[in-house]
Write a structure and sequence with these properties.
The protein has about 160 residues and is of the alpha+beta class. The protein has helices spanning about 40-55, 75-85, 105-110, 115, 150-160; strands at about 10, 15-20, 25-35, 60-65, 130-135, 140-145.
């Protein structure tokens, strides 16, 4: 069984298919985002993290979701505009998807199931749940919503993989 996220293709905010194989060789932090959440200011910390490490082979991937409290009412270009205007987001953002339960996207079913990914068994309990993925596309760790992307333990974990 393939234990890599590189097997998945997801749509960007313009509806264009993006193969996660395009991110092979990069360390990733995959985060389910929402524009109307108390944790939305984490977008700024995610952007800073992205900028700090992008030249070393790192990227944040933002995946909007409306699964928690209807906190992502925006779609497509409106999500991109909100993220750029309010938080200067330059990292890749993707189409809204379900991240929990029986309707979870294939990517999130993989990310949250140890049986599928071989290592991590944690589905998002709220917005801004973070998955750390190594250069081979393997899920290595996760960080709960309350853990800021700027937390030293997040930075240390990324640096270890770069």
């Amino acid at each position: 069984m393939n234990k890599s996220i590189h097997q998945f293709t997801i749509n960007n905010l313009k509806g264009e298919a993006v193969s996660l194989k395009d991110f092979e060789g990069k360390v990733l932090l995959i985060v389910n985002t929402a524009s109307k959440c108390g944790f939305t200011p984490q977008l700024e910390a995610m952007e800073n993290l992205h900028n700090d490490y992008k030249d070393k082979g790192f990227s944040v991937l933002g995946i909007p979701s409306n699964d928690f409290g209807g906190q992502e009412p925006l779609e497509g270009d409106a999500i991109q505009e909100f993220c750029q205007v309010n938080y200067g987001v330059s990292f890749p953002m993707f189409e809204k998807m379900h991240v929990k339960g029986k309707n979870a996207s294939e990517l999130y079913q993989f990310l949250s199931s140890k049986k599928a990914n071989g290592r991590v068994n944690s589905s998002p309990k709220w917005n801004f749940h973070k998955y750390l993925v190594n250069k081979e596309g393997e899920v290595i760790d996760y960080f709960l919503t309350l853990t800021s992307p700027s937390a030293s333990k997040v930075k240390r974990a990324i640096e270890k993989l770069l």
